[in-house]
């Protein structure tokens, strides 16, 4: 009745009035998402399939629909009106606004988010980098510019174009750092950007993205400077920053 031409779309005003006048009780969380669906659509139409996916809690992989519609002018006060939230739920809400551009997907993510599996990849990588740095710092008694120490360059983790036959070095150099400044900068960005991305997109996609950035760094050095050793996880950090943007 609402779509006589069978286009798969109905007007936003019609949809909004239907939501508010529906005779059956709706779950408050899903009612909020339906309202967000109407408010977030600047084309004046609501897609039937998008409505079905929302109600059935089926969303496209990595919120492709939200990313594709990232230029929408959306109200920011819908999910932000939630009060009485604990620390973790406030953090989840922050992640939703930081990563997802569509209000409807923010609400869906907020209500559907589960703590399992946790974002362990970026935390594990950062912790390993800190442990490796402390071990080499204590062993060499040197906490800055460690690459100038001859014993440091003998590490099986450091990448150098002259050692490119040892394939593992293309990735393991990400655990080594020059000093506290480089380690601190990379660790901070990995936790601030990588953890929210991993919470939304999952461990597999973010781990592939990070490792691809690390690999791109060692491959680039291999063809640009055959004399330079390479350490640090900056390649992965740059990949995370680019993905976030």
UniProtKB/TrEMBL annotation:
One family from Pfam that matches here is Rhomboid
Enzyme Commission (EC) number: 3.4.21.105
Listed SUPFAM superfamilies: EF-hand, Rhomboid-like
User: Which reaction is this enzyme known to catalyze?
Assistant: Cleaves type-1 transmembrane domains using a catalytic dyad composed of serine and histidine that are contributed by different transmembrane domains
Q: Name one GO molecular function term.
A: serine-type endopeptidase activity
| Membrane topology type | Multi-pass membrane protein
Q: Which GO terms describe its cellular component?
A: membrane
Which terms are listed as keywords in the entry?
Membrane, Transmembrane, Transmembrane helix
Q: Which residues cross the membrane?
A: 120-138, 170-193, 199-221
Extent of the signal sequence? none
Q: Which residues belong to any copy of the Peptidase S54 rhomboid domain?
A: 166-245
Location in the cell: Membrane
Q: Which family does it belong to?
A: Belongs to the peptidase S54 family.
What name does UniProt use for this protein?
A: rhomboid protease
Query: Gene encoding this chain?
Result: Rhbdl1
